[in-house]
Amino acid sequence: MRELTYNELWEINGGEGVLAAIVAGLVVAAVPIALYAACQFVSGFVEGWNE
Known about the structure:
Layout: H1 6-12, H2 16-50
């Protein structure tokens, strides 16, 4: 039983497709969260500034 090379493990695990799907999922999830957080921060800052 010889050791698998990194490339062979990569192919067995589905390789770049899986990694790309995970990264894309994280990006898609992070964008609306970041936008929402930015809006909350800006609106809070504006309200604090107006008081």
